[in-house]
Design a protein that fits this description.
Layout (H helix, E strand, L loop, with lengths): L7 H26 L10 H55 L6 H24 L1 E2 L2 E2 L7 E5 L7 E5 L22 H54 L3 H27 L10
Length: 275
């Protein structure tokens, strides 16, 4: 039937052209954003899954930050403990030299001056071994904890190792320890040896704690990377595919425009019936 009121061919051509244009818009959005699912309107179920996974990634970032802070505080303690261990070795050498019966008074006094300077340096190091408000050597912080899970239910703790003079590992070495006499020097050798053993043991515990944090941090980062990869598989656009699709749709659009033009011109043939 020929009609000037209703052009079925044009309407069908227009419907398909509109569909093609909508597909082109979707493809262009995917290319410009790099995402095939950029919002819930694109794919509600996939978007919801991706959002839940993004929440987990954000949680693991908080866990990583917590582990990094705790590990830094422990590493500061480890460095300080190593310095204290070195100082104790030097102090033991001074004490051993001062215990020599053949040493004159002036020499022993000089050794004692060096000894007390080293002794006081221990307290200075212990008091300044602080990171982010945590000091694991001065006795002020019982332990430090770091998050392990994104729900905050699990933590890893590292206990402090007190190395202030007269406390913890240095109970036998006080703020008044001296080697000003041969008797004091001889007694101090044994105390320093005991302190050295204690400090090195405490140092080993701190090092183990730092290693534990490092292992957990590596594991957490791998989990986060895996989740990010999974999110990418869900929502990222394959730009090679989208580019090929865009070329195809643009060709289809041009053909649709031509088809609509032909359909719109068909009613004009009715005029020929009246010539």
């Amino acid at each position: 039937m020929l009609s000037v009121n209703t052009n079925g061919g044009a309407m069908i051509a227009l419907q398909y052209l509109n569909q093609t244009q909508a597909q082109i818009q979707t493809t262009q959005n995917a290319i410009s954003t790099g995402l095939k699912v950029a919002s819930a309107k694109d794919d509600g179920a996939t978007y919801a899954i991706a959002q839940n996974m993004r929440s987990s990634v954000s949680g693991y970032q908080a866990v990583s930050d917590s582990l990094n802070r705790a590990m830094s505080a422990v590493d500061v303690g480890v460095s300080a403990a190593q310095s204290i261990s070195d100082l104790l070795i030097q102090m033991k050498t001074k004490a051993l030299s001062a215990s020599d019966t053949s040493l004159d008074t002036a020499s022993r006094t000089a050794l004692n001056n060096d000894f007390t300077a080293l002794r006081d340096q221990i307290d200075t190091i212990a008091k300044n071994a602080s990171f982010n408000g945590f000091n694991l050597l001065d006795g002020g912080t019982p332990q430090i904890k770091a998050l392990v899970t994104t729900d905050g239910a699990s933590t890893i703790s590292v206990n402090s190792q007190t190395m202030a003079l007269g406390k913890g590992s240095l109970t036998g070495v006080t703020t008044t320890s001296a080697i000003d006499t041969r008797t004091n020097a001889s007694a101090m050798v044994g105390k320093l040896q005991a302190a050295l053993v204690n400090v090195n043991g405490a140092l080993a515990k701190l090092s183990a704690g730092s290693k534990q944090y490092s292992i957990q941090l590596s594991f957490t980062n791998k989990l986060s990377d895996t989740l990010n990869t999974g999110i990418g598989h869900l929502v990222d656009a394959d730009l090679a595919v989208e580019s090929a699709k865009l070329t195809s749709l643009q060709t289809k659009q041009q053909l649709g425009v031509q088809a609509l033009s032909i359909a719109n011109s068909s009613p004009q043939s009715i005029l020929q019936l009246f010539q």
